[in-house]
Design brief:
about 150 residues; mainly alpha; about 80% helix; about 0% strand; membrane; PQ-loop_rpt; transmembrane helix; MannP-dilichol_defect-1; transmembrane
């Protein structure tokens, strides 16, 4: 009973945090007046993955069996492309570590709530991988902010 209440509380926090997820990134871009380290391909893949996850709430179960397996590779691709963009630039001035912390945190809360509600292996794998990759982007952004590399 107590674990279920905690899962419900985490669900509410996750929903609230998702409303503000991109605000720190947008503010960071406005301050930097640049979007150099933001991967457009990664952003488009992330939006596709989010759209599929949202659609999963609205569509029949038959269609879910086709779309659900696509979420993980699309989500992974979006984050790997963003990580590559940071690594290639050796700069993360336009990347908001706060945005990626929120992403990792909300993905972690989803791991717990999915485990409590259904223990769906596909969804659990998707969100566990997302926690790892979002954390990697956050730590990469922090690393390159603290360890500036001279550009030729």
């Amino acid at each position: 009973m107590l674990l279920q209440q905690f899962a419900d509380f985490l669900s509410l926090i996750t929903i609230g945090m998702c409303f503000i997820l991109k605000i720190p990134q947008i503010l960071n871009l406005l301050t930097a007046k640049s979007a150099n380290q933001i991967s457009v391909v990664g952003l488009l893949l992330e939006l596709t993955s989010i759209s599929i996850l949202f659609a999963m709430q609205l569509i029949p179960k038959v269609v879910l069996t086709i779309l659900a397996p696509l979420c993980t590779p699309i989500s992974v691709s979006s984050k790997v492309v963003q990580l590559m963009a940071i690594y290639q630039a050796k700069n993360a001035d336009t990347i908001s570590p706060i945005t990626w912390f929120i992403s990792a945190f909300t993905n972690l809360t989803r791991v717990f709530t999915i485990w409590m509600d259904s223990a769906d292996i596909l969804l659990l794998a998707n969100f566990i991988i997302s926690v790892i990759l979002s954390s990697s982007i956050m730590f990469s952004a922090i690393y390159y902010r603290w360890n500036r590399v001279k550009q030729d």
